[in-house]
Structure formats: structure tokens, C-alpha cells
Amino acid sequence: MPEPYSKEGLSIKRLRDLAYRLNFPIMLLEKTAEEPENFYRFRYKKKPNGKLREYCSVGRPLKDIQKAIQRLLRELYLPKNVHGGIKDNLAHLCGFWGKNRGKRLFYGQR
Fold this sequence. Notes:
The chain has 110 residues and is an alpha+beta fold. The chain has a domain at 1-39 and 60-77. Helix content is 43%, strand content 13%. It has five helices and two strands, in the order H-H-E-E-H-H-H. The longest helix is centred in the middle third of the chain and has 13 residues, at 62-74. The N and C termini lie far apart (38 Å).
């Protein structure tokens, strides 16, 4: 069991600690991290102007893991100057670089 944490830190030093905090088995976290592309589904939707819009949805268990991480991070105290987010996600990369190149960049592959 990891050390108790305060609003300033989570005390997560090992994968075992993370699995405990998120309430997921270590094997599931490892499997999901090794092949995250298996949990993204790319689809197309027709826009009113007739063009196709590509979008991406996240499947389980990755979606559940992401929600658990979000719940955990919400408990932390963040100063007022820390806010917002970075729009550098998979969908953004795929839209800018194209589906295949965006995936490779997102997952760190060449």
C-alpha cells in the first residue's frame, strides 16, 4: 500500500502504487499502455456541407483508466496560475498530420 498523500502530492512511486490508487490491476494498466492504439476507434461523420469529418472515440478499458486518473488529479491542489490544457491530443494530431502519421507521432513511433 502506498504512503498516504496530501493535497500537494500523490506519493505514487511505482506502478503498483498507481494501480492501487486507480483501483485497476497492474496487468491491465501494462496491457493498455503497451497497445493504446487498440482502444481508439476512428469514424467519419458527414458535415452539412457534404464533407466528411473524422473523429476518434476511446474504448474501454482505456476510457475507464482515463476517468480514474482524472478523478485522482481533481483531488490535488493546483495554484491559480495553473489552468487549461494542451490541445495536443491524438485527434488534433491526426487532423493536422493525417491519420497514420498523427498516430505514429502520438504514440512515439517512427
